[in-house]
Amino acid sequence: MTDPQLEPMPDDWERALAVVAHPDDLEYGCSAAVACWTDAGKDVTYLLASRGEAGIDTIAPVECGPLREREQRASAAVVGVSAVEFLGHRDGVIEYGPALRRDIAAAIRRHRPELVITLNHRDTWGPAVGGWWNTPDHRAVGRATLDAAGDAGNRWIFPELLTEQGLQPWNGVRWVAVASSSTPTHAVDATSGLERSVRSLMEHHTYLEVLTDKDPEDYCREFLTGNVRQLAPRFGGLPAVGFELFPRQ
To answer: Is the model's pTM score more than 0.90?
Structure first.
């Protein structure tokens, strides 16, 4: 039995908020799609739960956090994203719960997106990529994002967002799209954004130096090209960035 064909992602929206745990999560997951969207005039904002300060064994968190934040801002700029925000949750021990949901709901109310994007929230990455166990941070942030899309529209959940921060409820989220899902339902043609996605990932210089012994450009190109080609048979032969799409309205 063959996998079903992927539907094109909706494009009748103006604003998106991409919510992930760490610097480089979006670059590994969906930056080619982001490049296509910003080319089309879409407004995309990045929201990161942590600064990735625990991600490099040889650099203390107090030094690593600001470094990875700078690399993330440079990386986002390559694909046309200028707004990058950090929530300041502690890398490696991000907890799913009301505090995280509230922070993400607040950002949704501030930015008022129609599309919210996050990363694989399930226990594993799926059999297609070896079935590796997913990290606690990814699971927590992905699940909290799915829930916060509803929290943002309910004035009685986290009422302090209105009374203390003046953030009116936002019921305008129409979809939550999960990147790097093992069960994608929709896709974006990555053709025009692929080269910039490679350059965007390469901006994470310090992290790549400790992650791989390969030439950084070769590593980034091989990884990202392999990902988008894997879904091509399900998307008319086109290199594709896949998403599992959850409609909200």
So the answer is: yes
